[in-house]
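TL;DR need structure tokens for one chain.
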Amino acid sequence: MTTRVGPAVAVTVTKLSLMVAVSILGASLAAEAQPAGKVYRIGELSGYPPARYAKERPWADQWAAFVQGLRAHGWIENQNFVFESRYTEGRVERRAQLARELVALRPDVLVVTEGEPGIRALKAATTTIPIVMMVAADPVGAGLVSSLARPGGNVTGMSILAPPVGGKRLGLLREAIPTIANVAVLWNAGDPAKGLEWKDTQIAANALGVRLQSVEVRGQADFDTAFRTIAQARPDALIVFSEPLTLRHQRSIVDFSAKNRLPLISEIREFAYAGGLMAYGASLADLFLRSATYVDKILKGAKPADLPVEQPTKFELVINLKTAKALGLTIPPSLLLRADQVIQ
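>> reply
TL;DR here they are.
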């Protein structure tokens, strides 16, 4: 059994911090509603252990939001619940095995941070233990739930709503750099949800008069070829669709974009923190915080089939001004004013 202590890192988003602070005031009352004596088990399937999260501030903030959300409902680690954790450590071939190990421990609820691939692995391992997905691009399209309103089965949680914001992301890139005409899109073609995001981005590109170059990867061995393809095409900018495969190669992708002086925009702020130009998408910290409510309801007896899947209500735009300066770009003041965070 692996017991996790959530990183003692405050969530950086002010409004989110206020929400957590207010909700924690009621934690003592919520704790009184917990069945006395029982210590519940929350099974967790994630990419990396706490030590890795602690070194990467944005990821630490997200997990801290989840732990604080649990505390707000009266769930205190090592008092009335413990974590049973398994980490792929970037070795996706172990995902199915780790999912089976978690299920064999018979936890009261399972949570997964790895998106559709991790959710599928847990769903394949159990049809009875409740599964809370903390991020899923398109759970209906991926066949994980029957519908958002009535998920059915043993899976529910948060949708990241990735496809509809694909076009918005391209629009923001064009607003930042009005001269772009050719944009490469690096994405995992083996992920059905990313196929929807590609179509949404294509629609926006047609409206904006931008030509897209689809650069597809399906595994680790594809990245060197993908980088060569992009370098030879010499696009004006690069869009990266975020999911477990591209996230594992975040460092090499950002380094490639810097070496080739390519403005990069992605879905989650980790790419901007790592040196990409921009990020726009749902706030993962907010999704993690709200995931705690699902865990609370399930531990109190609710069935996942009866808990509608929720979509993001908070989106964030992050601009790395340091990267913009290195690329010789001047970001319009109107766009900087709309940014949730500007990295100097």
